[in-house]
Amino acid sequence: MLNPLTYAYVGDAVYEQFIRTKMVEENPNLTPHLYHLRSIMYVKAENQAKAMRHIWDILTEEEKIIVKRGRNAKSKTIPKNSNVIDYKFATAFECLVGYLYLQGKNERLYFILNTVYEMLTNERRKKQ
Q1: 3-state DSSP call for residue 124?
Q2: Distances (CA, A) of 34 to 28, 29, 30, 128
Q3: Is 86 annotated in the active site?
Q4: Taking Cα atoms as reference points, which of 114, 109, 90, 89 lies closest to residue 99?
Q5: Residue 98 needs a FRET pair 20 to 30 A away by CA distance; which of 11, 38, 75, 113 works?
Q6: What's the number of domains the chain is made of?
Q7: CA 8 from chain center: how many Å?
Q8: Over its length of 128 residues, how does the chain's per-residue pLDDT go in tens digits?
Q9: Where residue 57 sits, what CATH number does that domain have?
Q10: 8-state DSSP, 58
């Protein structure tokens, strides 16, 4: 089993690509700057932490172990725009995504990513 921060490193890239792809599929005529502005809402630590809490009850025991390892991993940095708790849960989310991706559990991965995307999109729409 890899270091949880290694899973998070891969998970960050996988999640970012998923979000960027969704942005382009759903809004094919935006500029790259507008894609960036829309995608921020999905990838910022606060919302990744919210996503992690949202999906907790649908995770398997194996996935919960991975999440806990990611949450408890010792990171040397914390972004300026995030608090420690959100950052730890965001890391846990990215760790889960990276783990599922590297294990080739694509069906489960995309189920979770789509669940998170739908939840965050619905939340955004309620605020508008």
Answers
A1: helix
A2: 11, 10, 6, 17
A3: no
A4: 109
A5: 38
A6: 1
A7: 9
A8: 899 999 999 999 999 999 999 999 999 999 999 999 999 999 999 999 999 999 999 999 999 999 999 999 987 776 777 788 999 999 999 999 999 999 999 999 999 999 999 999 998 888 77
A9: 1.10.1520.10
A10: G
